[in-house]
Amino acid sequence: MTRSTGARLVVVNGHIKPKKILILGGGTAGWMAANLMIKAWGKHGFDITLIEAPDIGIIGVGEGSTPVLKSFMDAIGLEEKDWMPACNATYKLGIRFDGWSTKPGFPRYFHPFPAQVDAFTAPAFFEASLARRNGLDIEGHPDHFFLNSYMAEQKRSPFASENFPFTTLYGYHFDSGLLGPYLGEVAQQRGVKHIQAKVTGTKVSADGQIEAVMDEDGRTFEADYFIDCTGFRSTLLQEALQVPFVPFADNLFNDSAIVFPTPRPDEVAPQTISTALKSGWAWTIPLTSRIGNGYVYSSAYTTADEAEQELRAFTGVGDSAEVEARHLKMKVGRVAKHWEGNCLAAGLSQGFIEPLEATALVLVQLTVQGFIRALETSNFTTEKRDQFNDDINGRFEAVRNYIVAHYVVNSRTDTDYWRDNANNDKLSRSLHDILSTWTAGKNLTDELIRQKIEDHYPTMSWHCLLAGYGLYPAKERLHTGDVEKHQVKLDEIHEFIRRCSLNYSPHMSLLESQQRTA
Ligand SMILES: Cc1cc2nc3c(=O)[nH]c(=O)nc-3n(C[C@H](O)[C@H](O)[C@H](O)COP(=O)(O)OP(=O)(O)OC[C@H]3O[C@@H](n4cnc5c(N)ncnc54)[C@H](O)[C@@H]3O)c2cc1C
């Protein structure tokens, strides 16, 4: 049987007609796309080629992830024991935010990845935070309610003994200079062709389809689909097809970063630490080989030299000439459409939201998986393209709202940067409604469900963020009411979490972790 798809015939007797895919760019995004596509389409004989220009190179930063990266590794069939040692990777239970709030009792909080046992404790936290928002002087700090928060503090690993049947989600830290090349090796073993060439020209048809790209040696490469993974350059989607870029600068001020490594102490907690500095924030990320440090800041509020001095002082490396800092510019925002004509952008070429919650690779993965699904369920037509673009834009905006929330609820007053962030009223309707629901003492979960955004950031994440900044009535406005009755329940929860955590092994030292993953 032959079926017509309108544009062309692709499914013949249940078989997909092989297509030619050209991925431009060999950073982490390009090789993630290559792996997902060869996994989905290799068996149908698709010709998948990745072209990269070694003299342009990769951005070489981005060391944090969420549990979604585990689902990527699972989807392409890679095992931790193979890829983790090769990429100096460690486990991550969440992110600790230090110094973003000046509210008494809230100097820091932890944004945990969910654990199964949270199902028993989260309702009590939601209830307690609601009661505190409505004036009861009850404990409202999130760190006391979630397993991974407690386990990160206690330096425990995400692996429980066999007789404890509850799992916990976790992400990874990894060396960004190693992950892409590792995925590249895997993709090539599975059939992806790799060409080193610098693309200098693009041939676009009158109806906006890319027909071919040309390299500096005059070679021409044709394909049915072009995947733009060229980083901030966005050579195909933004340059050749002229898809507009939507900047996020009105409520995300950071546009620059500085990075350098420092030696790793033997004992580290399985967490990223994000510490508020004068004009932005610094990450501290433990790998098996080193600590990754970075300062994400706004160039409107400090100079590159001042920022470097600040990061050097913060990390304790001082003026040491042995520590060489890299300075980077960030283009923060998203493209208006991620899929235009026969071109998809994935990675920095489609947009970037600053790395506060380490979400960039999640968006790469969901973009490529969504594209594959949209093509397969439409017989390789453009039928699902608008829906796909709306979906990915929705994801970018949802992540943006969550990141903007960090800045707008900060209570620091030490610099113009923090004051301007707190006073910024350029908020989306969605974020405005979330914040008003919270401060009005109403049910936040209901609001997230009403907005249908719970699958982007779950209710736990929003509660942790807003409670973690101490966004409650001032202490003098709280009353004691029947707080004792509640407190008994909370004490039981703390004890429950403590006991659960004892089932998880201590977080591994460098050597143990290498032995475990070997
Ligand atoms: C400061 C900072 C911190 C970050 N932290 C995180 C984090 O914690 N977690 C996270 O998930 N993400 C993070 N990111 C984002 C992350 O770095 C990127 O999403 C990821 O590295 C993927 O980058 P990429 O592959 O899109 O682009 P790149 O790494 O820039 O790769 C671009 C590729 O395109 C090729 N190329 C470009 N032009 C041409 C051409 N004309 N011809 C041929 N080849 C070409 C280059 O050679 C290169 O191979 C961070 C980003 C920044 C800036």
Q: What is the strand tally?
A: 25
Strand order of the largest sheet: 7-6-17-18-19-16-20
Helical amount among residues, as a percent range?
Answer: 25-40%
**Poorly predicted segments:** 1-9
* Backbone structural class: alpha+beta
Rg, nearest Å: 24 Å
Alpha carbon gap, first and last residue: 50 Å
Instruction: Give the amount of beta strand, in percent.
Output: 15-25%
Largest sheet: 7 strands, mixed
Bound molecules: flavin-adenine dinucleotide
**Overall average residue pLDDT:** 93
Number of helical stretches of at least 4 residues: 16
Shape: globular
Report on this model:
With 518 residues, this protein is an alpha+beta fold. α1 (28-41) packs parallel to α9 (360-376), α4 (118-133) packs antiparallel against α15 (483-501) and α12 packs antiparallel against α13. The protein is globular. The chain contains 16 helices and 25 strands. The strands form seven sheets. A seven-stranded mixed sheet has the order 7-6-17-18-19-16-20. The protein has a six-stranded mixed sheet with strand order 10-4-3-14-23-22. It has a three-stranded antiparallel sheet with strand order 11-12-13, with no helix packed on it. β17 (272-277) and β18 form a beta hairpin. Helix content is 37%, strand content 20%. Bound molecules: flavin-adenine dinucleotide (FAD). Flavin-adenine dinucleotide is lined by residues 24-30, 51-53, 56-59, 61-65, 176, 198-199, 229-231, 233, 235, 257, 294, 296, 328, 330, 347-349, 355, 358, 360-361.
